[in-house]
Here is the input.
Amino acid sequence: MSKVAGMKDCVEALAVKRGISKAEAQSIMQDAVAVIVDKCKEGGVSFKGQFTIKQKVQKGRSGNMNGKAWKTDDKNTLAISVGSELEAELNK
Here is the structure.
């Protein structure tokens, strides 16, 4: 499995790809991430053929441990699904 790229890696790749400074690339990347985060808060975001990020509710659980009952609340989380184009690239 490959290493997961961080923000710094993405900023550097964007700077090289666009031929711009790292400072410009960082500003663009931060703005793009902020927009994606806002859209995820509203329900999700889709990049056709690449991936879709949807908000979903993870149901709370309950149980018994050592004679003590416990319960967790429902919480909002995100699910990502891979689009056909990205899936093809991943499986070359």
